[in-house]
TrEMBL record:
Residues 35-363 form the Beta-lactamase-related domain. The keyword Transmembrane does not apply. The keyword Hydrolase applies. Keywords: Hydrolase. This is Serine hydrolase. It comes from the Bacteria. One of its GO terms (molecular function) is hydrolase activity.
Amino acid sequence: MQVKNVVGMVVFCAVLAACGGKGAPAPADTLNDKVERFRLASGVPGLAVVVVDGDHIDVATSGVQKAGAPALIGRDDRFQMGSLTKAMTASLIARLVEQHKLRWDSTLAELFPAWRDKMRPEYLGVTVAQLLRHRAGLVRDFSDDDAVGLQQVVTGDPLQDRTAMGLWFLQKPPQSAPGSTMLYSNIGYLIAGLIAESVGHAPYEQLLAQEVLQPLQMQGAFGLPEDAGGQTPVGHISTAQGWQAARFNPAMQDETQFRLWLFAVSAAGGLDLSAPDYGRFLLEQLHGLQGRSTYLTQADFQLMHTPVDGYAFGWGISDVPKYGTVSYHTGTAGTYFTASLLVPSQNRAVAVMCNCESADAEAKISEFANTLAAAVPPK
């Protein structure tokens, strides 16, 4: 059961470097124009795009909420963000660190003393920072056997259920020696979310709302946007007949397994956001790196964008010619896809959100995001 919540490292920044030096577009070529042309050329069902330029947030939408239906994508429609949730989980952890409820170097042995004799000894010294940088050695995702076993321990109590899930995976052998290498793991962020629940004494979703969404004047939800009912975007998968609305990731055996996975790894990839709300998060990241934020200290913002082996706290990091250090990530839970990047040297950030997922769509959307990020000449 491998769910493709990914960073998209190599092509993502290589394309940005290739875009450098093209200069600014003609004034009449608005963001709406670009988004509409791209959607028509790519054939994706619906898009929402946010561009942060300086202190300005610009949003454009194009296409439909559901293939074959007339309702258009709206400015405030939410999209499933997949692994872009990870940077928000890191922000939640940073808030708890600044409240002195834990440290970046707090270990699992310190944080879960009752588990000292239950978890694998290799995990005892794993730190919070290692979890957020994917250096804990944990498996990437559930196996089908994990899903079957975990269905037997679910009670309906969020704190109890995710605690049981966390211990389940800490009793499995590591995939690599903790601290030795970057091994992308949604399960590592499950544990990070569990740490937040343990020191914050509330479910992860409540803590994220309290420490991330509300302070940044954002509104979000968990699950899938279409779960809300009414007119919302619907996720799609690519078929021989074209885009088909899909209720869950086709990599899963059934919707029950998908829902279990999505609940368990809520801190890794469960959040739904609109383009304007995600734009507020990107803007705060820029402000924080510039020392212009009161949300977190500049030192913690910089730490969250400082990589080990190319990965920081919920961000892939790369040095791009002419653009300097760029933070980026992509995210999908199988029926939506978003590409995001932050270019501090240009005081610019971009995200392209689609209610669809396929390898072809991912490549086109990532390239479009880079093109938008390079729409101003490098300084």
